[in-house]
Amino acid sequence: MNQYPTLFLSLKDVDGTTFENAFNMLKFVISSLCSQNSYLETGENIRENEKDIFSRLRSQTASITDIKGSIVTIMNMMQSYYEKPVILLIDEYDVPIAKASNNGYYKEMLEVIKGMLSTALKDNSSLKFAVITGCLKIAKESIFTGTNNFVSDTISSTRYNEYYGFTQQDVDKLLADAEIEEKADLIKEWYDGYNFGEFEVYCPWDVMNYLRDLQNDLNARPVSYWKNTSDNAIIRSFIDYTGAAIRKKLEVLIAGGNICQKIEEDRTYDYLHSSEDNLWSILYLTGYLTKVGERDKDGQIELRIPNKEVKEIFELTVRKWFEDSARVTNRKDLFDAVWNKDADKATKEISTLLRMTISYYDYRENFYHAFLAGIFAGVGYSVELNREHGEG
Asked: How far from 9 is each of 153, 167, 277, CA to CA, in Å?
């Protein structure tokens, strides 16, 4: 501690619906970093051209080229100022790439982030060492092409497994100190269940937030604190993309069951939706699913939803998807065809709805009867079905 200059950068806020918006946000983040280290502009040993670039970065007038070399420029200035190499800490390295993948400017953002990180990490004489965190394993990510001297610790690694969250011993101590041991089972049900290496851990963010609420109100119910720190777009994007097979597995998970899937940790965002395996790998790597046992001989892992909090996130996301899908489905043409006695048009509209909703195994007349009755009753029509006469 205090032996080397340290540069900390978080990319969590680099987001935008367009590349221009996201790039402007990136310029703001770099500008804030320069403001925190404004003393560098007064350094006697720092070259004038570096001070000029630093000034543009700080005033948010930097070019794309300036931004690509921003981290290595600041590090070079720090080394000149302190006459020691720099420790680099980068958090949420893949957020800009994930947001770019969701919004259609992946290649543009990849070029910028790749330039920033590659120049900072590869052949940089100002670098003592770097620590980088993010959702996806970085070794094979195209951001780091040419940068191959990484040691990766993922959720299946065992080196730091108990440090990713609170262990049972940690939580027991917290509850004892707060004198609320009676809440132990409730906290375990809602916030435990994450497997890292050989340890099962609690989500520390949730535990600390719930303990805070309990200190104000001993009857406070657990809530989904994690939900408010993430937009959960990853689940929604796959539900939009996938077919009935994956939705069936989601039903099994939400019902409390387990599924067996092959997990690949070397994922990149540009191929995120290229296969079903990617869905389960991403949900596993981002904490929405956790493993039940070890990999079998085929490389598959049994997966489950870790706790009640994540189950609630799944349920809300799936429910929202169904509501949006129902809202998008326009049935006005069907109703117009019925009122106008246009049998051909009605046939076409009903066939479209059937293809979207049911299997060809559902072929009995009474099924179609109930199907149409539900469609018309669901939008407010008064539907009169076949009425019984007596009990015959």
From this structure: 20, 28, 32
Is 387 part of any domain?
no
Q: CA 131, 43, 75 angle in degrees (round to 5)?
A: 20
Give pLDDT tens digits for 44-95. 889 999 999 999 999 999 999 999 999 999 999 999 999 999 999 999 888 8
For 32-43, give one letter per residue: b (16+ CB within 10 A) or e.
ebbeebeebeee
Residue-by-residue DSSP string for 20-40 = HHHHHHHHHHHHHHHHHTGGG
Residue 161 gets which letter from DSSP? G
Domain contains 166: yes
Contacts 24+ apart (CB under 8 A), 104-113: 105/18, 105/19, 105/22, 106/269, 106/270, 108/19, 109/19, 109/22, 109/23, 110/142, 110/143, 110/270, 112/23, 112/26, 112/64, 112/67, 112/68, 113/11, 113/143
Q: What is the pTM of this model?
A: 0.70
| Segments forming the whole domain that contains residue 202 | 161-223
Cβ atoms < 10 Å from Cβ of 197 = 17
Q: What share of the chain is helix, strand, coil (3-state, %, to 5)?
A: 55, 10, 35
Compute the chain's Rg from CA coordinates.
27
For 275-329, what is each residue's pLDDT tens digit? 667 778 878 877 888 888 777 667 788 899 999 998 988 888 777 766 666 565 6
Annotate 228-259 with b (16+ C-beta within 10 A) or e (fewer): eeeebebbbbbbeeeeeeeeebbeebeeeebb
Find where tokens 């009676």 sit. 182
Alpha carbon distance 173, 187 (integer Å) = 13
Same domain for 311 and 334, yes or no, is: no
- The predicted model gives 192-202 an average pLDDT of 84
Is pLDDT above 70 for 200?
Answer: yes
Domain containing residue 308: CATH number: 1.10.10
Domains of the chain: total: 4
- Domain's final residue, options 289, 309, 326: 326
Average pLDDT over residues 109-134: 90
